[in-house]
Amino acid sequence: MSIIISSLLFLLFWLFVCCLLLYFRYRNDIVRLIREPVLKHPVVIFESDDWGPGPLEQEQALLQINQLLSGFQDQNGNHPVMTLGLILAEPDAEKIAAADFSQYFKRTLLDIRYQALLTAIQSGQQQGVLSLHLHGLEHYWPSSIMLGAAENENIKQWLTGNKQLMTEDLPSHMQSRWVNSVTLPSSHHNSDDIDQAITEEIKLYQQIFKIKPTTVVPPTFVWTDTVESAYAKHDFKTFITPGRQCDGRDSNGHPAANGRTFYNGEIKNDLLFLVRNDYFEPALGHKAEKTLHNIKDKTACGRPALLEMHRFNFISGATKNAQSLNELERLLKMINDHFTDIRFLSAEQLSELYRNYHQGIESDYIIRTPIKRIQFILARIKQFFKFNRYAKYSGINFVLKLI
Ligand SMILES: [Zn+2]
Fold first, then answer.
1. Is the pTM of this model over 0.85?
2. I need a labelling partner for 350 at 20 to 30 A (CA). Which of 44, 80, 270, 281 fits?
3. What is the third-level CATH fold of 38-368?
4. Cα(311) to centroid(ligand 1), Å
5. What is the whole-number distance in angstroms between the Cα of residue 371 and the centre of ligand 1?
């Protein structure tokens, strides 16, 4: 009997010591995930990037999306929202070629050819199914494209031989606007150039949409602290992240993480951060069933599901368009069937809720009572340590599963 008691005591002591070690190793993250606001209801937002200049099929695709989303609603009568990460301009390839590649020219969304696209966007806004993020004036840094075209035949071919000018076709590292990646590893732009570029972005966005942008999602999720501070200085309110910061491209052109992480609702320089925490790209084979499962995981943690899905799902031919719309519809039906208390919001509304929470303003969307928060915090801790080998081999994960 005493052996059993001794073994149990040893086991408890072992688990206690392991818990302490894990806490001290990861206390920064644990404290932050405890502080992260807990949502009372499931929240799903579709976050779709790269819309703007390019294929004219976007207009029809957006009309289809508007119609599809407006066919669903939550208990409050709100429709599911797709946020559009907007690009405002593309290269004017003809003018650039006419100037013998000595100067960069751009064509913006104000060009007559994009009038119908803008009408489709505005129509979606009026129906309450689209909301707008600034993705960037261009999905690249113009002088990098000009330098790249002079040195790299593929980039020159993209600029001159590609009527659609889809930035998705550029080499991945060249799609990063906020670092200079013509030569790798990338280097940083100087702060004056960044400030000037952001000023230009805001001016053009205002010309197009008659309102200042408040939410930004940096292209390819590569940005520097200088870029972030400049957006804050220009009164942006919400910054979309993938949960970590990459501030450059490494020697292979891959995004280089700098170790900084994000949790929903964190604020720095009055800029509130949201975390895109999953993908839903039907054209890449993502299925509604698996996405629903992932949404359940986020909901169990009191977190929103911010599902990244790019425009390529809807404009890469009739088959992929139909497949993507069909999968989106299936997912929405499953969401409405499974979550009777679903809440559809825009990212801006969610950001405002988090901001109000920090200011002590009550809402029906966020749980404040500590005792009610416990189960969500535990789910976050379980998820945080899910793939942690120390938590696995010490037995902590096994114990967490029993709770
Ligand atoms: Zn993009």
1. yes
2. 281
3. TIM Barrel (3.20.20)
4. 9
5. 40
